[in-house]
Amino acid sequence: MADAAYHHAPTPVEAGLKCCCPRCGEGKLFRGFLKLAPACDRCGLDYGFADPADGPAFFVMSGVGILVTAVFAWVEVVYRPPMWVHLVTVFPGFLLGCLATLRPVKSWLVAAQYIHKAEEGRFESLGRHDFDPRRL
Ligand SMILES: [Zn+2]
Prior knowledge:
Layout: H1 12-18, H2 55-79, H3 83-115
Bound molecules: zinc ion.
């Protein structure tokens, strides 16, 4: 089915928040916690193009790390609690924050990859904006 048939395709952010298919917005993207399904169970989009690599982990660790570290520093400066308080709040906060955001961020990156047709660079395509690998 052509992409033009999907008038209600989600934006990358919507697809990320719903963890759904970037083309139809209805099918499931994941088969496990972070393992992608082979294809959409609604529209049949093959998820073989999806390869966000370490992108989700990088964005999640950076974002959650900055946020948790900022809260840690603020609590330390303002309240000066004993170190065990930080131990039982900072590490679980970091762990739960990462686990809670990994799936949406991965889904968002897969949707952005699909919408922008991002793929690995190829030598044949350098300098050619009209390059289509299917015409080789
Ligand atoms: Zn779909």
